[in-house]
Amino acid sequence: MKFKFEKFFFKKKAKTVNKSIEEIRELIKERNSAVVDELKTNVNSFIEKLETYVQDLKKLNIENYSSEEKEKSIILGNKESFLNQLKILIKNLKELNYKQSSTNELVQEIDSLLDEFDKKSSLAFQKLSFFIGDVIAKLSKSISSFSKWLNHFKKINESLLQANRYLENLEQIEKEISKKTNASNSIEKEIRDANNKLAGLNNDIKSIKSSIKEFLKSDTYLKIQKEKKRLDSLNKEYTKLLNSLKELIDTKSLANSFHSLPKEMSIIHELKEDFFNAIEKHSKEILGMLKDPEKERVSSTLERISELKDEEKEIKEFISLNDKEKELRDEETKINANIAEIKEETNKLEKKKEQIAIEKNELLKKHQTILEELSSMKL
């Protein structure tokens, strides 16, 4: 993602020079190239000196520094340890990647290598200083001299190093802004797709309402309404007949007659607990327990109830097969539920988009602040 910005300024004494961000980047690139060359030259010179000291230490005659075997052993052991760390330092310095690493990374890595060398060679260095201080002193002076130069290098190039840090921050922020933009675009697409789907569903609702309106004018609808009224009449008669059965069947009298028969008493108990359900389950058994004239009247009532159930079943089958209104309204309910779900998801997406916009705006402000800091620096 390329960012376009207004002109910024580098302050040079009383003279103000207009610079674009692209020009600033190019100027910093040129300055980095020059200081990296300087850094490389000095590091290579330092490596040459270290390699000379490696050879000097290898050639060192321990006999000249001690006649005691114990001391010779100490000097030899620490010399080998120190030489090993010195070789590692040289190897790591030679492997510095001047083309791929930034100035800041190179400086940080060199600092780290020197610190690591100091930590791991400190003990051997101290012991060698005690025995062969003159040789170690020269090496120490060279390392100290390079460290001082490196600190001076960092000091005089602090503005450039800071500018590099600013550019790194800008690049990171630009990546974040790009991510936010892509996320926002993705959400906008989701919202557009959702709105298109909503438009289609709303058209489906209009079509269903139109179909319902047409159906309500049809002969089939009138027939269904007539059958529903008939069904209501049947239900009333059914309820009335069930209530009449409750009056016809004297459970107390039946209990007195069949108190010694477990099966019959179980049915009588069910009649007391749930009369209507017991009638449906045990109508034949109950008839067998009754005496005339109650038996005849109950039988006649049960027959009529059976007829009513058959009629009810027939009416319900007709309504079920022909009630297009119910089918359409069920479909309308499903679509409305889907619409509500999509609207809820769309609201979540809108809120998410708003949050991303806030975060992106904060990044843009931060980007602008760093640019202003960068534009005011002297390189």
Q: Determine the fraction of residues in helical runs and give it as a percent range.
A: over 70%
- Oligomer, anyone? single chain
How are the strands ordered across the major sheet?
A: 1-2
Number of strands: 2
Strand content: under 5%
Largest sheet: 2 strands, antiparallel
Mean pLDDT across all amino acids: 86
Uncertain runs are 1-18
What distance lies between the first and last C-alpha atoms, to the nearest angstrom? 27 Å
Radius of gyration: 49 Å
| Inertia-based shape | elongated
Specify the number of helices.
Answer: 10
Q: Supply the helix-strand structural class.
A: mainly alpha
Secondary-structure element series: EEHHHHHHHHHH
List keywords for this structure.
2 strands, mainly alpha, disordered N terminus, 379 residues, elongated, two-stranded antiparallel sheet, 85% helix
Description:
This protein is mainly alpha-helical and 379 residues long. 85% of the residues lie in helices and 3% in strands. The protein contains ten helices and two strands. A two-stranded antiparallel sheet has the order 1-2. The longest helix has 58 residues, at 158-215. The two termini are 27 Å apart. The relative contact order is 0.10.
